[in-house]
From TrEMBL:
GO MF entries: pyridoxal phosphate binding
Keywords for this protein: Pyridoxal phosphate
The organism of origin for this protein: Candidatus Borkfalkia excrementavium
Similarity annotation: Belongs to the pyridoxal phosphate-binding protein YggS/PROSC family.
Chain's role: Pyridoxal 5'-phosphate (PLP)-binding protein, which is involved in PLP homeostasis.
The protein's name: Pyridoxal phosphate homeostasis protein
Modified residues (N6-(pyridoxal phosphate)lysine): 30
Phylogenetic placement of the source organism: Bacteria, Bacillati, Bacillota, Clostridia, Christensenellales
Amino acid sequence: MIAENVKKILSEISGGNPFGEKITLVAATKTRTPDEINEAIAAGVNDIGENKVQEFTEKYDAVRGANRHFIGHLQTNKVKYLIGKTYLIHSLDRMELADELQKRAEKADWVCDALIEINMGSELSKSGFSVEEAYDAYRALKKYPNIRLKGLMGMLPISENCEYLRSLCLSVRKIYDKIREKDDLFEHLSMGMSQDWRLCVECGSNMIRLGTTLFGPRNYPQTL
Ligand SMILES: *Cc1c(COP(=O)(O)O)cnc(C)c1O
């Protein structure tokens, strides 16, 4: 079932986005077992993302052959566990996190590839820079020698209003293009989850993070 889902999505995105860019599929693997994740990798997934440091670490050795993304909120006291292990951190959402990443990465003589997280819907429950702050945040974050900025990441709010969601995506794409004009390293716009990825791709996303669509509904343990 997982393999079929992966193949279906890979074929659906194989033509790229309307901006002529290749789309990268990141499998969002929270709560999934290493066996499930390895099945997705065998079916063609090259990128996987965890959103908790503990899960990232626990599954690290049992999963084989994929780029390891970190896509969840990252507490500063847990940064140390990710140093040297991530392919891309999607959730660079505040300056204190950049300070800690810089300090740890420098000590390890490592450069961390990261996306600046944008709080697209200005939601109190989510972190990240506002669209208005994004350019200044980029300029400030660009000064950290051990952090290499590769693009932007965002999560849409829940809404039935497609026009509203579309306008949010397009405003993020606009700031992404503004930065990309001057910065060749900028290549990822990570927007889109199971609910909304088609709309995000239409509006210029080139990296989607899918969990449910690939693996089915999540069963959280009772303790959560
Ligand atoms: C879980 C998760 C996803 C995927 O969610 P689905 O709705 O299952 O596709 C994407 N991004 C982040 C940051 C997540 O935590």
